[in-house]
Amino acid sequence: MNAIAFYLATIIVYGAVDSMACLALNVQFGFAGLSNFGFIIFQAGGAYVAAVLSMGPWQKSNGGFQQYVLGWHLVWPLPWIGAAIFGGLLALPFVFLVGKRLRGDFAAVGLLVSAVLLNQLVNNFVPLFNGAAGISIVPAPFSGTWNPQGLGYQFAYGGVAVVLCVLVYFLLRRMTESPYGRSLRAMRDNDVVADALGKNVRVQRTSMLILGGMIAGLSGAVLVGFINLWAPGAWGYAETIVLFAAIIVGGAGNHKGAVLGALLVPLGFEEVTRFIPPLSNPALVPALEWVAIGLLIIGFLWFRPDGILPERRRILSRWATPSVSVPSSGESDALINLGNLDQMDFRQLLRLEGDASDHGIILASDRLTRAFHGVTVVSEVSIEIQRGRITGLIGPNGAGKSTTLAMLAGTLAPTSGRIFYEGRDITSMPSNERAKSGMIRTFQLASEFKKLTVLENLVSAIPRQSGDSFAGALRGRRYWGREDAENIERASEMLEGFGLTQYADSYAGGLSGGQRRLVEIMRALLAQPTILLLDEPMAGVHPNLAHKIGDQLTRLAASGMTIVMVEHELAIMDAFCDPVIVLAEGRVLAQGTMSELRAKKEVVEAYLVG
Length: 610
What we know:
Helix content: 40-55%
Number of strands: 10
Strand content: 5-15%
Oligomer: single chain
Number of helices: 24
Shape: elongated
Low-confidence stretches: 323-336
Number of domains: 2
């Protein structure tokens, strides 16, 4: 019975350690979209720091047969706290090394290579890490007063590990269920769009890398204090693949799924192999274990990519009055059900207070040029945009319209030239800072946040939310809940006007092309822009609704909003845009009203024929 009890205590500790690690990786990968293939180095680093902080000086400890640094002999829980701090600090070099490319494949490869290099360093540098031998005889917490081999100690240790795991679970849940968590998931779905809405995606990624590193370091400290040794060979980069397998199986973006995956994969696979009878080749069982993990990953990615417990859909409409319902299959298309758009008061909804009496220059470019691999797409474009007007931008395909708009918004850096906003040179200003100053853009292709609901898409764009920061999220719903409910009300009112109320709690990625375009327009408006840069906003939108949207844009311009619109539909330009700028072959060809442009031979030949 004692053997079974000891075995159960061990299972509890390993289960808690694996769960903390998976929760940390899940918040990076499942919520923030950061593919941290070097995750294991944070856990290994935390384990090493906890070990050497709890041990005495190596020259005097146990005959000095092993080498390491520090050796401060700190009492519990200081070694564990030090491990968590080190895990966070270890993230900082990766932020600076990878820089702005801390995204997608760049982050995955960079962190993986770093994990391999660090593992090689630890295995071969004896004076600091004792080489491949690692560190042994690591003192367990309170080993001077309790017997670490006693059953009571083992279960108490397991209880502490479980309590820490529960605290980590609720900490991450508190953070990810806030407006800040909504921004993390928006960044995961489309970081370029999140950046264009004013989210500082680099800071968000850095925060998640540090937070995940701290939790990983803590989990390593719990493990090394239990097994009393640290060996670099046990922290190979392949261990990260096991944790990723756990996230895939349990369900990325779901905290409960991360815990379930931890119990099924790293813990479950290891324990199941104990019951396999001895084989003639002792290396066969570990090899078969990796084969099984690989097949498990492939199977889930093919048959159940969302995992056993998929990411939970957030139903925000319950916080709105009146509540909105999920559409049934028999409801009419929102492109035909136009809502009450022409009765809406956008001036009040968007908190607009100005007017368009001043038509001075608010945005200008000076010889703006952009080349791709030696091919010039935009050449010395100099334009001036007047405050409170709807300025059209037209031209044939490949004229450089979208490229110009992207440079104005900051999502694409110019090769040369300058951009001025309210008289200030903003050429080097990042796109998220331009968005915070009031420059909001839409994109040529529908750019919704696919795994966010329609209502979440809209609410995520509202600026200056108190819960849309790491510190604000940790303060909890009592701090940001009332404001968030008001923001949901505003977004629900916008949905009603555009006739999309019944899709409020549907995933935006499941809508039709025209509906996704409407979501993008609504989201841009709720970002409360001073300058709205629209890239083909009416593409795929029902003509009747397109003209209603145009009428509202005209009213917004009369309230002081400046709008620049790229559009192929000339009827829209005729009805709403004055002036209109024509681009051809990357250069400004002409400017004026549509009637004036039709009278110019060069414009007719370049674009308006037919």
